[in-house]
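Run log, item B.
One chain of 329 residues. Sequence copied directly from the ordering sheet:
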Amino acid sequence: MGEWVWWLSAFVAAFLVVELAVRFLVLSLVLPIFERRPPFNVQSVDPHPDAEPLRIPTTDGLTLAGSLYRPHGEPRGLIVFCPEFCGSHWSAPVYAGGLLDAGFALLAFDFRNQGQSDREPGYTPTHWLTEREMDDTLAVLHFAANRHDLRELPVGMFGISRGGNAALLAAARCKHVQVVAADGAFSTEGMMLHYAYRWAELYVPRGLLRLVPEWHLVEMMRFARRVSGFRHGVRYSLLERWLPRLAGRPVLLISGERDSYVAPPIADRLRRRIGPSCEPVWFVPGAKHNQARDVATEEYDARLRDFFEQIVPVHLQAQDSRRLAPIGR
């Protein structure tokens, strides 16, 4: 009996040593890639002369810069726009101009340490979504809910790339957000897992890699995120855990068919996590990351308009139909 206990103890000890060695090997390989900022080429956008400048307070004492774009006539709804990493609130009409033309008001903002918003000392944002960006997004929703000319409007959200991640997560946390759309969105865990297999094939034979269960690889990626978060004093937001809370609310995901950063399987993984209320991902032919509207402007605007029509009360839709109906019909 004592011999079996000894062998079992020896096996457990050896397993723990190997596991620890593998974790630190994975960490040395994954961490530099995870923390490297992709070379995004975000074009600057000039200020819009008709937009109302906004200053939005956060719960931790910062002030976010933003802008409110009003349509002609009474707004049919409010769309909170979350810009991409390194983008600004002035880019709202670039992506959501069709919504403005369709009668929706747009409320856009700059995340902290981005654009014209306040800087938090010691914080360096990356393309990965953290709870800092979530605090900013929730502060904007709170601002809109307490402003007299906006609080009665039905609310939807729309975001680009990392801003799309923020829009999805904020909508999952705030039930008063009725619909949400995201272009180029991705989850931290899904992105890491997708590329982990590609990275691993550079160091591990494919046949051996297939023997590693997915749950173990997921745990390795979580370990790397925890270490990175500790190093930089941040908490990365895990979108996957919240996406099921969007069940029952309309969700639209857009992705470029030629997107070399957010590959189609990553976007489709988000759709599966959300469930049946998420429309099939619109993979835009010929589009790269965040370039879907450039490639298919008319269809892009039409899809967004039709999607966000769902937040417009039925009686207002009827009024719009009568107002826009051709003479003689």
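Observations after the first pass:
- The longest strand covers residues 63-69.
- The first helix runs from residue 2 to 34.
Flagged for discussion on Thursday.
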